[in-house]
Amino acid sequence: MRGRPTWQGHLKLSLVTCPVALYTATARGGEVHFHLLSARTHNRIRMIPTDPETGPIERDDIVKGYELEKDRYVIVTDDEIDAVRLESTRTIDIERFVDIADIDRMYWDEPYFLVPDGKLALEAYAVIREAMRRTRRIALGRVVMHTRERLLAIEPRDAGLIAYTLRSQGEVRDPAEAFDDIPAKKADPAMVEIAEKIIAQQSGPFDPSKFTDRYEDALRELIASKRKGAGRTVAVEEPSDTKVVDLMAALRRSLGKDEPKHRNSPRKRAT
């Protein structure tokens, strides 16, 4: 049940070439989407292009503009955009092989199934797949999809290959933008030791079936109840911040230990 391929072409390793196809490996059909309706008639509303000075305008009178600064644009025509579109070469030309650890996770983007396209592709496809599996390398290649050139990372998976589009360097922000303002703070070794034990207690295999979108589930329950003529609201309780003075106590409770009594607490007198 692959559906229609996102892209079809050839996978090329030096002089070895085979026909392949890309199929998206993720599905968004499960998300709940809403339409905008008129509150009075419940008809779907239409978004009409409007000039804030002259009012509604025809779509033929709309042009594309790149904002240089506030209220100052460079106008670009569709013909000018078409002139610089990249021609699809219909070939994923493998340029190099790298260790998977060499690719920062921030660069990984959308996954695709990369499959052989026809029986004649099977032998060359299998050779490339098995050679990559034995050498434990990730292949890097380029592909043009939707007029945009993307870098692909390809890895063997089961009987096939998985291809991930990679974000460009310009799309990935420098972590220092977010982390440089975090004040230096040395963690308490005793607290770190307890936190490590908590991590060990809660460690286990990844099971995606255990992680569902509770908001989507709540929306579906709401829609189901509305169909029956009932209404409901859903509230998700937000956790409170752990106060610094209670951090050790919270860690001990998480580990399943009671907080020890204070050493200087007075002893109970014998009667």
Kindly list the characteristics that best describe this protein.
6 helices; alpha+beta; single chain; 271 residues; 11 strands; disordered C terminus; Ku70, Chain: A, Domain 2; two-stranded antiparallel sheet
Q: Your description of this structure?
A:
With 271 residues, this protein is of the alpha+beta class. Among the domains are: 7-28 and 85-171, Ku70, Chain: A, Domain 2 (Beta Barrel); 189-201 and 211-255, no CATH class. Helices cover 22% and strands 27% of the residues. It is built from 6 helices and 11 strands. It has helices spanning 78-83, 122-135, 176-179, 189-201, 214-227, 247-255; strands at residues 7-13, 16-24, 50-51, 55-56, 64-69, 72-76, 91-98, 108-116, 138-145, 148-157, 160-166. The strands form 3 sheets. A 7-stranded mixed β-barrel has the order 1-2-8-11-10-9-7. A two-stranded antiparallel sheet has the order 3-4. α4 runs parallel beside α6 (247-255). The longest helix has 14 residues, at 122-135. It starts with 6 loop residues before the first strand and ends in a 16-residue tail after the last helix. The model is unreliable at 265-271 (pLDDT under 50).
